């Protein structure tokens, strides 16, 4: 019993300290004499408790971390697209259309190019026109909140405050790629420089970033290998590969079937009054002022 009070604390009083020091991997000296057995028992119980609490805390932190990286895997109403739901931010589309993953053999060799990668012409333009339809449609105010936006700031249909306008991300990315493509054939698409909007270059640079971000965000890990090519001195990349792709045709079919015609709908929408607004970029203000100056100069 002499050791029991060696530091002025009883065994019971020491328990919290024991627990505390164990957290740092330090074991306090065990009391000797009659209390030794009692202390072993308590130590054991405390170690078990401690481990349990550690595991519970760890699991909780791990779960929260997982959830905060994927704040969006729950809240779905169907069990469609389970894998995409785990690897995408929340999207109501994943409850509305099945997007299976498909293994494809892709041949992107230099001279095996699709209609999209031909010099401009009627057929090519029609293919891109279909590909880049914006796919505008509606989501609910609750969905707007779920994707991390504020429904008091998003535009809704004039006759329905629960129908908020949206465009699938992929169609904006394709729209941007098409803008870059058209600029490659500037004489064909913009034969007269006056056809270029004052935002032309800013729009293209914005689009460059959109496509870059899309590629880096998806960061495909499928592989390109190299071959020796007859009569060529250095190894050449082989652009045929196997990839797992989202079923584009199914998704595109759904988007086309549910599309709101922008010309017939949003082009005629007007404010009803009281809408919250976002700021105009200062560059637009400057362009507007410049245009007004030019108009006035022409009137004089
Ligand atoms: C890919 O397409 C090119 C051009 O059509 C063809 O010559 C080549 O054999 C194809 N390669 C494979 C692996 O399919
Ligand atoms: C060439 O490319 C097209 C479109 O990407 C593809 O459908 C076709 O299978 C390819 N041809 C060959 C020979 O691989």
Write the layout of secondary structure elements.
Elements: H1 11-23, H2 35-69, H3 82-87, H4 93-96, E1 101-107, H5 122-131, E2 137-139, H6 141-146, E3 156-157, E4 160-166, H7 169-184, H8 186-189, H9 200-218, E5 225-227, E6 236-238, E7 240-246, H10 248-257, H11 282-299
Antiparallel strand pairs: 1-7, 2-4, 3-4, 5-6
The structure holds 2-acetamido-2-deoxy-beta-D-glucopyranose (2 copies).
One 2-acetamido-2-deoxy-beta-D-glucopyranose binds next to loops.
Word description of this protein:
The structure is a single chain. With 300 residues, the protein is mostly helical. The protein has helices spanning 11-23, 35-69, 82-87, 93-96, 122-131, 141-146, 169-184, 186-189, 200-218, 248-257, 282-299; strands at 101-107, 137-139, 156-157, 160-166, 225-227, 236-238, 240-246. It is extended. Helix 1 (11-23) packs parallel to helix 2 and helix 7 (169-184) crosses helix 9. The longest helix has 35 residues, at 35-69. The protein binds 2-acetamido-2-deoxy-beta-D-glucopyranose (2 copies). One 2-acetamido-2-deoxy-beta-D-glucopyranose (NAG) binds at residues 107, 109, 111-112, 240.
Features:
single chain, 300 residues, mainly alpha, three-stranded antiparallel β-sheet, 11% strand, binds 2-acetamido-2-deoxy-beta-D-glucopyranose, transmembrane, membrane, UstYa-like
